[in-house]
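REQUEST ID: PR-0412
SUBMITTED BY: lab tech R.K.
PRIORITY: routine
TASK: structure prediction, single protein chain
INPUT:
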Amino acid sequence: MLGLHHTRKGGADDPLEALSGSNGLSACADTTIVLDSNQNGKTLYVRGRDVIERETAITFIGNQWTVLGEAADVRRSSERAVIVQTLRDNREPMTPSELAAVLEKRANNIKQLLYKMAKTVPAEVYRVGKGRYWLEPLLPDNPDNRNNPAEADDE
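STATUS: complete
OUTPUT:
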């Protein structure tokens, strides 16, 4: 069974909160898909029991929907993308000063941008340790980190 509904005009942090009417609409559905359009572009948000939660950036060109990629990646500014790539290339957490030196930018600007990136939902970077930032909430050498390259070599 397919139900089609509309979202409220006010928007919301959680796409399911944007559904107009009762929370029962999203609570009873096995899968909910929300098509949204705002200042960041058009997105297709999917959440359900048997699907992976995902928000995808899309566009409508020539009477056809086209997937642009993960919404967070598409929305990320070039400055933010460079920071993420620099952290990935460095393979360990960095301070704003270290990032600024590598990127040849002002440390205060990088510090402010990192703060904003850590506050986004979902976070683009995480503060780990004393003023250091990383791509995941756990340090890369932490054995609890499932993406730890040292642990992967042991398996």
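NOTES: The helical segments are 24-28, 71-75, 78-90, 96-103, 107-119, 149-154.
REVIEWED BY: pending
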